[in-house]
Amino acid sequence: MLDLDHPTPVDLGYRWPAEWTQHAATWTSWPSDDALWEGELDAVRAELALMVSALTRFESVVINVTDDEAEHDARARLRRAGAQPGRFRFHRVPLDDSWFRDNGPLFVVSGAGQVALTDWRFNAWGGKYEYGRDTLAPASVARELGMRRFAFPYVLEGGGIEVNDEGLLLTTRSCLLSTTRNPELSEEETEALLRAGLGVRHVVWLDRGLEGDHTDGHVDLVARFCNDRTIVCAVAEDPQDPNYAPLEANRAVLEALRTPDGEPFTVVPLPLPQQRRLPDGRVLAASYANFYLANGVVLVPTYDDPLDGPALALLAPLFPDRELMGVSASHLVTGGGAWHCVTQQQPEGAIDHG
């Protein structure tokens, strides 16, 4: 049975806005544990420095660092990469891993334009890794900002949900209904939780995400809103690809979806890059859908793949008011994700100090 303290965010007029809402800042975390990066830590840090430096052209960035070494390394790399002075700062917080989309807070905005944050339990995608420090990160952000914090006793990761600005939320059953997250909640109770905590009006369930995705199928690798009425949908072009059937099923759900006024959404198929594997044979969940929408720019992961160029060309017309920038995530993806997975947007607005 769903158990919520009151008032909830929706009781106070808060909702989780679409990613294209103007940002006050982007939060990200500096990687520190080489073992989690399959020995690729140096290359991952180099890629992250390029991404953050590009982002500082458009908005402020807050970088979570675990210790002196991480901060010194980040500062030096960002200087070499040409990050805009005064457009980034550091937040010292102990972390187990770097995926702040999932272990960080979800910021919500009120009708009056105030910003608060929601703090959900994080259990490393069903207990797959250490997470004792990660799950404390949202409370640390709340203290840093002096911001009202709504805490929930339920597991939820930001990469597992996707919203537009009309209250429509996309997710996958394989993730949100997994027995290692909130086994006590039914599908209906999970929907009620999302409505109360994030102010959504309607939940659309896809069945599965990508093969090899250790998150159990995060939606931000397979379906993303470009605007209120346009959705990009990852597809596999080879019928023999294990992703082919589940992604076609996702596309069918999205193509049957209707807007509040009864119109179909524009659903744009977005091919996956060629399959990538770790040396031990594990499949990596690489996807161009893991882009990040910031102020004036869309940062799209590239993978040194023949489809990089066509993917960028396909996405560019969908964001006419933003610069589209491909940024290599060839090493970052060894940890299981790309640019959307390592970022978290803080919407613009006055801080609700609670």
Brief descriptors of the model:
354 residues; alpha/beta; L-arginine/glycine Amidinotransferase, Chain A; four-stranded mixed sheet; 27% strand
Walk me through what this model shows:
- The protein has helices spanning 41-55, 68-81, 100-103, 124-127, 137-145, 173-176, 187-198, 244-256, 308-315, and strands at 14-15, 23-29, 61-65, 88-92, 106-110, 114-121, 149-155, 161-163, 168-172, 202-206, 223-227, 230-235, 266-271, 276-277, 283-284, 292-294, 297-302, 323-328, 343-347, 350-351.
- The radius of gyration is 19 Å and the shape is globular.
- α1 (41-55) crosses α2.
- 48% of the residues are buried.
- With 354 residues, it is of the alpha/beta class.
- It has one domain: 5-stranded Propeller (L-arginine/glycine Amidinotransferase, Chain A).
- Strands 1, 5, 6, 7 and 20 form a 5-stranded mixed sheet that branches.
- The protein contains 9 helices and 20 strands.
- The protein is 23% helix and 27% strand.
- The model has no long low-confidence stretch (mean pLDDT 96).
